[in-house]
Structure formats: structure tokens, C-alpha cells
Amino acid sequence: MRAIITLWLVSLLTFVMLQLAPGSFADISAITSGATMTSQGQRDEAISSIQSRYGDDIPAWQQYLIFMKGAVTWDMGPSYKYPSRSVEEIISGAFPVSASLGILAVIVALVIAVPIGVAAARKRNGWLDNTLMFIVTALHSVPNYLMGVFLILLLVGAMHLLPSGGWDGPRNMVMPVIALAAGPTAVLARYVRSAVIETLREDYVTTAIAKGGSPVTVMTRHVLRNSLIPVVTVVGPIMASLISGTVFIETLFRIPGLGTYFTGAATSRDMPLLMGTTLFFAAILILTNVLVDLSYGFLDPRTRIERTS
Amino acid sequence: MTTRRQLLQAGGVASLAAFVAGVTGCGFSGNNQPGNDGSGSTTSLSILGPALPTLDPQVVSDGKWFVNRGLLEGLIVQNNDGTDVMPGMAETWEMSEDGLTYTFHLREAKWSDGTPVTAKDFDYTYKRLLSPSSAGAGVTLGANTYITSLGIKNALKFQSGAITDWTQVGVKTPDDKTVIIELEIPNQGFLISMTDGSMLPLQQKLLEEKGNEWEKPENLVVNGPFKLTAMQPNVSATLVKNDDYWDAANVHLDQINYKMSQAGATESLIPFTNGEVDVMPVGTAANLIRFQNEPDLQGQLKSAKPGSIYYLALMHSENPIMSDIRIREALSLAMGRDTVAKSVPLVTPTNSLVPQSVPGWEPSVGIAEDLEKAKQLLSDAGYPGGKGFPPITILNGGAASPMVQTIMSNWTANLGIEVKNDVTEAGVYATKRFGLNGPDYFGFYFGSFASELTWPKWVASLWSPTFTKPFSLSAADYKQYLALQADKDLKPAELTNKLAELANAKCSEEVKTFSDLTDKAVLTADPDEATAAFKAAALAREKCFIFIPIGQGSYNFAVNKRVTGFHPRPTGDQYYYKTLGVQ
Q: Is A77 in the B-facing interface, judged by CB distances under 8 Å?
């Protein structure tokens, strides 16, 4: 129920802000297309005909209701900017692209971050820890688009190893995934490190070591498992932000993901597409948070007991 | 009972499986043949260009130019350098003696579904173009404004709703193979304007049967040299040779891999230098300079004839300062165009709003710079040495331009005035450009425009009298003008009339002179006399100092040496795919 209210508020806020934003789809198209220049005083007809796509002279509140009805029934009609494609078609075509990149990036980040975090925690304050944390901090400071440009210059411009962009096969995923994974790797590595340090201090770890458990077993069975909760908490939002599309990376690598549509819709004031993508993002974010909450129960039996008691 | 561990394991396996399925099904197009396919069996090129949100030629977008390049063919097409027309769907045509009627005789040509191209398709498409609300997607997004430079009888009246009977419009199709177009007045730019994308035919059956989805690759039916076989929105499109095309024997490529650069992406030459694309547009100063300096790139930059004009246009403001024409003239005379143009490679300075490649152009249609006179004018207007002149603004959308930066410093150095540059987001730009700005915000917006090189186009159609008049209105009159525009109760035809009435009555004397001279030029039948009349009108427009020319530029392309038949032209479609080949 709370999720539905949140979504409704998101839709209302988006719609109102779009109405308040300067310029309309018609104005902007008239300028970018040059139609203002070629017209001989009939700019207004050109404009009214554009708006008529969503019902001629329909008041804003009715447009909102029409859209919301479409959103609920998954029939949001054509986008202004992409007249031959419906909003739901755009979302269902672009989301798998963004999602696959986002999930891969998170997997790559986890695969790299966990060993780094563990290694750093074990040698806490040693040279290895310091070096790793230095690298991680540096990685964290580089925005993903800058990382993307760097990768293109290195792997494409200098070494000619990969295509600079496009979406033709798995090769096209290499650079975007690295660029997207860099930041999360840094964040996760730090989280793993501090969680592992915390857990290492626990009595049950000392007991496990005292009982003669091998360092690997102790680390994987006792330490890592129990360090996962804080990590999962951050993985959720990272995943949500990555799978919903990342405009800079998509634009840079010419990827048909959702982020491009979202920002394109905002800048061109494409009401149906902007509303549709915003609501979809909000739903993804809510869903991820719910999944993270649920996963606590599986990861830590105590959470379940606390909740049921 | 299922344990937590089992659940976790099962969940892990399931999500991994789902992910693998997702990745394999995430819409890779798999058409990534590099331009140099080496197999020898097919000849193909890879071309980088802008994204194509729609392919409707009646929507002014990059799609309109794209389809004109190689998917659809109009009655006539342009020759290689864009100076004349050649047969397209029309095999022959003739003009009546009074210059008012053109009769086009269609050749035996087929759509890509095998059905014949008929005059009915043209009639249907032109009607669609001129009936904004009835167009396929319910929209024409301004392509119908291109019709104004044609002067087709009653076309504008039909478009504005003043007449609703299509038979009164000067488009007639007496039989399946004849298209007759009647004009209101003789128009020496008519034929070249007919090559614009907005005049392309669409198959009536396709649009009626497929509705909004007619332009999807699986549905699209074309009559041009190439057909569309795949489209990945915002990323790529695949074109293959259309064997049903009437002149297929002269089409040299089997396939074109069109790769799209997304809006807002920074232009990079890497796809070109990495061998991924054979042709790409080059626009930024930084990249143009590379073609002059880097040995590897030399000889690979091709430019069309200069056909675009960079200009400043007056903004509406409550501040009356700019309505003093002496100030506007001073700003134009002291712009320092030489250095402004030099700030961007391949741009040359110009004092005229008509490109110098338009046949018959001469320097006397522009107004030469004169710094001393500019200073005097500013002083006469009450601001000697720029003293007391409030900061003036140059508005531009998108990225900051080196040209604007140079104008700013030149004005400050030459006239002693302070200049601000306002680089804004598209929506804000639109409101500031169309709206009446507050007293603190006045000046010019920066823009550029490219079009076919004819006098009627550049004088009577672009920065036309109708377009120019509202710019010379006082703040109070313009407020009234905006109020009329916002009045939803007015029917389109009524609105157009009322706006025209107001603009005619209240525009400045200089603009009236320009308007009268243009009307006269348009009505002149003799080509030489018409050119002379257009020149006089063009000069009169310069004297309004409402639109101030800065420089002229051209479309520039990086073209791999193996590409043959690349003929860039100044119009928006830039070049045709038909002539392209591989060495």
C-alpha cells in the first residue's frame, strides 16, 4: 500500500514539475527543427497539431488522468519524441539492456571488492591495506563517464582492441561494465573491509580459530557470512541505480538503454515518456528495497526471530 | 522442509539463469560488420550520424533528412553539387509558359513491396503534409512549413484551415502517372525546393494499414535505393540495397550500417580513426583542426559548399534600448567578423544573410563593417564610448560557442560595452527566445541555418518578412501578439490573420520596406530581374539590423579514402547514399 502511495506521489510530483518547467515539447521541437524559421506565421498551427497528439486542447489535469489510466493498464500510448513507439514498448525494450549492464557491473564489483576488502581487513593498517585502500579511494573519486572516456582512449584509441560503441554483442559490454563497476567496487571494498574487521573481533571467530578451524574456513564460513548484511544493504541501492540506466555511459558507448530515453524525455519535455520512465524507476527502487529487506531474513536468522517475536 | 541454505542456493541458480537469459536476449543487433568487410561478397559502408527518433519525412527531425538520403525518392532529386535538379520518380517534367504550372510524368517505378508508385501516393502524402491534424501520428512538427518556399496554390490556406476542400489546392493527379502542381506565382526556386524531404511520397496503403507503426523496419515500404532491414533505436540501423528500385543498376553498395550518435554525446573521431565508420559528420573546432594538422587524417575531410549562415537575432525585451536602430547598427558594424569567423575552422566571415554560393551573390547585398561609424552611432544614441550602456546578453542553447565568445570580446574592445553569454537548456532557451524578457534581459540569440542555395529561399522563406515583422514590434505590441497566440478560442486561420494584421500595422518602417521589396521580388517573373529584386530586398533586410550575419559555414565530413561517390551538398540531407561506393 505504502509503495502505491509513493508511486502516486512520484507521478504527481513529476507531472506538476513538468508543467512548471519552462518550454514545451512543441516549442523545443519548433526551434530544434528550424520550423520557426521556415514558417510564415503558422508556427502556432504546427504547435497546436503537436499538442493534439495527446488530445487537442485537453487541460493538463485531464492529461494526467489519461496518462495514469494508461500507466495502470500498461498502455501509455506513443511517446512524443518517438511517435511510432509506445512508452511501454520503449521501457520493455530498453530495460533489459540497462539491467544486464547493471547486474553485470554489480557482479564484477562484488567479485573484485570482496577479496580486496578481506585482504585489507586481514592486514589491517599494514602496507597492503594502505595500498589497496588508496587505490580504492582513487577509484571512487573517478566519475564513471570519465572512466568511460579513459577506457575508450586506452582500449580503442591507443590499442584498437574493442569497438568504441554500439550494441552488437558481448564485446560492447566490456568497457561500460568496467566503467560502471569501478565506483561500486570501491564502495563495496570499503564496506567489506570494515564489516570483516568488525566480525574478526567477535568471540565466535576467536572460538572458531581456537577450535583449530583452517583460516580459509573461518574466513568464509564464519567471518564473511556474518559480514554480508551491511554489504547487502548497500548493494541494493547500487543495483537499483545501475539497472535503471546510466545516461552518461549509455550516451558515451551508444547503448540503447533506458537512461538515454529518460534524460531525452526530460530535455525534450516528452510528457508520456518522462512520466513512464520516472514511474518505472520509482517502482524499481521500491522493489529493490523490498528485496533487500527480505534478504536480511535469509542472511541472518536473528532478524526473522526479532520480527516474529 | 526446504532449508534457508537450499532456498538461497536455488535462488542464486535461478537468478543466474535469468541473468544469462537476459544478457543473451538483451537485443544485440549482431550487424556489427565493420565497414571493411573483406569477404568480397558484399560491399558495405558504415556511416555515423545522429539518432533517428522517427523516420517520418513530414516531421522535421534528423529522420526527415535520413530518409531523403536513400530510403525514399521524390519526384525530382538534386544533382551532385546541389545546384540543379535531376529526374527521380518523375522521368520528365515541363513548366507552363506562364511559369505557374509544372507537370511531372512519373516513370514505371515500384515500391519495395512490388506495387507501382502512383500519382495517388503523392497526392495522398501532400494532403497529409498539409493537414496537420490528420497526419499519421497526428503531427507534422513543422515540415509543412517547408511548403511555404514552394508557393503551391492555396496550400497555406488549406493548411491554416481557411479552405477545407482539397480540390482547391494546386495539386492535381489526372491519372496514375501524372502529378500537376499549380503555383500562386512563378517561383524560380520551385524545382530545387521540391527536393526537400517534406515532399517525399509515402505509400498510402502502408500508412492506412499500419497506423503509427508504419515506419518500423518490418513494415516500412520504400521507393528509394535502399530499404531498412533493422533498427536499434538510438544505436543503429541497417540498410540494404533495394532491388526493386528503378535505378538499382547504378546503386553501388549492398549494405549501409548506419550508426547513431546520441544527442548530447561529445563528438569524437575515434570511431573514424579506429576504422569503425567510413563517413561521419565533423563539427567541432577541435576535430576540424585535426584534419589540418595530422598527416594520417589529411585529405579525408570533405566539405559541402558553404550553405549555412551563423547569425544573431534580436530578442524581445521590455527594455526599449534595442529598439534604437543606431545601437543595433553599431553592434553589427563593430562585430569584428574576421576574428569571430577565425575562431572556428572552415567558417568565413560574411556581412550578408544570403550565403555567398547563391548564384549572383555579390558583396553589395551586405553591409560592410565600419568601426568609426559604429562608435559614432553609439555616441549619437547617447552612449559615447559605451558609457552607461547596460550589459547586453547573447543567448545560446547547447554548448558555448567560440564565435559568441569572440563577438563578446570584440564588442567590449571596440565599443566599450559589457556583454553576457547565457548558455541555457533547451526549454529555458525556448521561453527566452519566444517570450518577452524583462528589462534587465535584452540582446540577441545566436543561431545558424542551412538550406538550398536560391534567392527565394534565403530572402522570402528564411528570415522572411512575416518572420521578421514581430521582431520589430514594441514591447507593448509584442505583449498583445503573445496574448493572441495564447488565445485558444481563435481558429488557426483567424489567428494567422490577426497576428499578420497586428504585425503589419505595428512593424517598423525598415521592415515594411523589406517586406514590400520582397513581395515585388517574389512577383517578378523574369529570372534576371527577379534576382536583382531579391538582392534589393536582401539589402533592405540587412538595413533592419534585426538579424545580424556573422559568418558562413558548411557541412564537413570525415570520409575514408576508400569511399567513392561522396558528394556533399548544402541542404539538410547533406548527401545521397545512392552514389556512394567503395574503391
A: no
**Nearest-angstrom CA–CA distance, B555 and B537:** 27
**A267 contact B CB<8A:** yes
Identify the three-state secondary structure at position B566: coil
In the three-class reduction of DSSP (H, G, I as helix; E, B as strand; rest coil), residue B387 is classed as coil
Q: Do B265 and A252 touch (CB under 8 A)?
A: yes
User: Of B238, B26, B240, B267, whose CA–CA distance to A164 is shortest?
Assistant: B267
pLDDT tens sequence across B147-172: 777 889 998 888 777 788 999 999 99
Residue A90 with chain B: CB contacts under 8 Å: 233
Burial of B213 (0-12, 13-18, 19+ CB in 10 A): middle
Beta pairing, strands B76-78 & B85-87:
antiparallel
Are B437 and B395 in contact by the 8 Å Cβ rule? The answer is no
Q: Which residues of A touch B498 (CB under 8 A)?
A: none
pLDDT tier for residue B138 given thresholds of 50, 70 and 90: very low
- Give helix then strand counts, H and E, for chain A: 16, 0
Pick from B29, B132, B145: CB nearest A38: B145
Q: Do A157 and B270 touch (CB under 8 A)?
A: yes
At position B522, the amino acid (one-letter code) is: V
Cell output for B137: 501520428
Q: Which chain A residues contact residue B141 at CB under 8 A?
A: 29, 33, 35, 46, 49-50
Alpha helices, DSSP H, located in B119-174? 119-130, 155-160
Interface test with B, best of A25, A32, A258, A298 (most B CBs within 10 A): A32
pLDDT tens track of chain A, all 309 residues? 788 898 999 999 999 988 888 887 777 777 776 666 665 554 444 444 454 455 556 677 888 888 888 888 888 888 888 878 889 999 999 999 999 999 999 999 999 999 999 989 888 888 999 999 999 999 888 888 899 999 999 999 888 899 988 888 889 999 999 999 999 999 999 999 999 998 888 888 888 888 887 888 888 878 888 888 788 888 888 888 888 768 889 888 989 888 888 888 888 888 889 999 999 989 988 888 888 888 877 777 676 665 554
Across the interface, of B265, B274, B433, the residue whose CB is closest to A31 is B433
Q: Which of A220, A221, A224, A161 is nearest to A191 (CA)?
A: A224
* Residues A49, A52, A57, A60, CA torsion sign: negative
Q: Which residue of B has its CA nearest to A270?
A: B427
C-alpha–C-alpha distance, residues A136 and B412, integer Å: 48
Residue listed under C-alpha cell 517573373: B525
Location of C-alpha cell 520480527 = A307
Give contacts of B 278-337 with A, CB under 8 A. Answer: none
List of domains in chain A: 2-87 (no CATH), 90-268 (1.10.3720.10)
Residue B510: which H helix or E strand, with range? helix B509-523
Q: In what order do the strands lie in the sheet with B392-397?
A: B348-349, B547-553, B308-314, B443-450, B392-397, B419-424
Q: Do B139 and A35 touch (CB under 8 A)?
A: no
Query: Could you report the predicted ipTM of this complex, rounded to two decimals?
Result: 0.83
A14 and chain B: CB distance < 8 Å anywhere?
A: no
| pTM across the whole model | 0.86
Under DSSP, the state recorded for B457 is I
Encode burial over A41-71: b for 16+ CB neighbours within 10 A, e otherwise: bbbbbbbbbbbebbeeeeeeeebbebbbebb
Phi, psi of B25 (to 5 degrees): -105, 20
Q: Which residues of B touch A49 (CB under 8 A)?
A: 132-133, 135, 138-141
The owner of cell 510524368 is B105
